[in-house]
Amino acid sequence: MEMFFQGALFSEETINILHPDLGPWLDQAMKIISMMGAELFFICIFSIVYWCWDKKTGIKLGIVLLVSAAVNDIAKEIFTSPRPDTAKLAHEIKSLRDSSHVGGYGFPSGHTQNTFSFWLSSIYYLRSMPVIITGIIMMLIVPFSRIYLGVHYPGDLAGGAILSMMIIPVLAAALYFIEKNMQKKWSVVIPCLAILVPVLVFNFLPGYHLNMVMGMLSGISIGHLTAGGRFNFEPRGSVGFAVAKTLIGISGLAAILFGLTEALAGTILNGFIINWLMGFWITFLAPYIFVKISVKISADSNTI
Prior knowledge:
75% helix; 0% strand; globular
């Protein structure tokens, strides 16, 4: 295993060579770009797709992202490959690395795998030229930002990208099977699996933050399945209402995340519960509120 993590792809010298020292403006730009590979960023994006564009596409993007993140978490615990050694990095990279406050192992890169998983699945499901162009750009600059900040080797990025490309076809096939069989004999089994699988994975497999990923996956799955039989939420609408839904939805996510983190601090299920509630908010509670608002707006307009 150690031989695999040797050579130019896992060398601090390669990071030093690839780092262009163009001043503080690029440092700040790379920090912002790197944030666009974080799970929370993509959670907000697939939530907006779910609320304002198409529920089926939104839930698929969410499931692909979260399953991929879970696989990445488990892979890191299997390979236990350290991140670049700060002492061997160039002086201008050391401060960037220290300010990043990263934890856990390095291979495969989580930000890279998140980026490839989300944008490749977006390209597959949406098949839109703007999405294709945006996806290609993001799949280039987000991984590079991780090298620039000194938190990953080039080999870590390659591992995340390759693992993502291996996972997506399997998940696409699985989601197609689920979509086609939800109304058949699997209609009872699939909801049960949505509850049991994340809990079992969280309890029995290793992972740096697997509890949070599995909580979110369980929450969005159960919320989506429950909402389907209780109310009819149609995402499409006016631009103004889309903006309102986005503001309400993101505010709700922030309230759950920041409001409960302190309240549940120190409990074993802290990450799982908070992320489960965030997931349930995305696919059930927020859409329910949006339906009520839409009905109210319609009623008011009819009385005028």
